[in-house]
Amino acid sequence: MKNFGITLALLFIASMSFAQKQLFNGKNLKNWDIHLGAQIVGFEYLAKKATPASTYCIKKLDGQKVIYISGDIFASLATKEEFENYHLHLEFKWGEKVYGKRNSGLLYHSFGPFGAAFGTWMACIEHQLMHENLGDTYLMGNTWCQVKSKMGNYGTTYFYDPNGQLSTFSEDTNGRSIKKKEDAEKPLGEWNTVDLYCFGQTSVHVVNGKVVMVNTNCSTNDNGKTAPLTKGKIQIQSEGGEFYIRKMEINDITEIPSDLLK
Predict the structure, then answer these.
(1) Is the pLDDT of residue 261 over 80?
(2) Once rounded to an integer, what is the mean pLDDT over residues 38-67?
(3) Which among 110, 157, 181, 253 has most CB atoms closer than 10 A?
(4) Range of the domain at 30
(5) DSSP 8-state code for residue 219
(6) From CA 168, how far away is CA 176, in angstroms rounded?
């Protein structure tokens, strides 16, 4: 009976370990690939000196180990494995050095070769991390989705609105970008919390506890032929601003919490 109890406890611990994975292990980046891409205009001299280790590395900040991203070259930090049906939790803040603008992205459902998007990244859907655009959706490569949205005041920009019209977005239809519902970003120098929920063809962007975007029918489009896009690798961009990540973990889910879809 005692052995049976121990077995159950071990099985429970094993199931918890399987369900939750630390994408940042607090020590190194051995579970990631690094790809250096295009130069940033005006900072070509920095790109020539850049290495994988100078672009993405582990440093100490505020007394803890963090992922440091230089931002001085366009580059990708990509998971070695693919993920499907998950909740990803990320905590980040901006540094002081800027090379054009504070820009980065949490790229999910990534697939194919590096360089397919803007000469640097894999095709993917982006949870935008750019300063003042945190939570936007941006579609890279041949990806597309549908979002309930409304047109902005100037007639050129779409904003997520849960009461809006369901519209299709892609390179050829309404553009690649859908703006967040509201600004939930914290002031520069403070830590932001990002939660990404992906289940089936739906993805939800949550910024500092507020739902700012819901994408549905996430897909790819090859010469007019669409296919569901439900999984892929995760990429973190180096794209113009010094950047720190102190926590990044992923959990399996069996559905998206209903309160996020209201």
Answers:
(1) yes
(2) 97
(3) 110
(4) 23-261
(5) E
(6) 10
Q: Is residue 61 part of a domain?
A: yes
- More confidently predicted of 2 and 158: 158
- Cβ-based neighbours of 113, under 8 Å, separated by 6 or more: 122
Per the domain annotation, does 15 fall within a domain? no
How remote is the C-alpha of 237 from its chain's centroid?
9
Greatest extent of the chain over all pairs of C-alpha atoms, in Å: 71
Contact present, 177 and 89 (Cβ < 8 Å): no
Considering the domain boundaries, does residue 3 fall inside one?
no
Which CATH number belongs to the domain containing residue 237 in this structure?
Answer: 2.60.120.560
In terms of residues, how long is the chain?
A: 262
Calculate mean pLDDT across residues 240-262. Answer: 97
CA distance 159 to 179: 5
Other beta carbons within 10 angstroms of residue 20's beta carbon come to 14
Q: At 4, is the secondary structure helix, strand, or coil?
A: helix
Contact predicate 159/152, CB 8 Å? yes
Which residues, including other chains, have CB under 8 Å from residue 44's CB and lie 6 or more apart?
none
> Is pLDDT at 225 greater than 80 in this prediction?
yes
Closest CA to 207 of 145, 128, 154: 128
- Residue-wise DSSP of 53-121: HHHEEEEEETTEEEEEE--SS-EEEEESS-EESEEEEEEEEEEEEESSS---EEEEEEES-TTTBTTTB
Residue 170 lies in a domain: yes
| Count of domains for the chain | 1
CA atoms of 13 and 228, how far apart (whole Å): 33
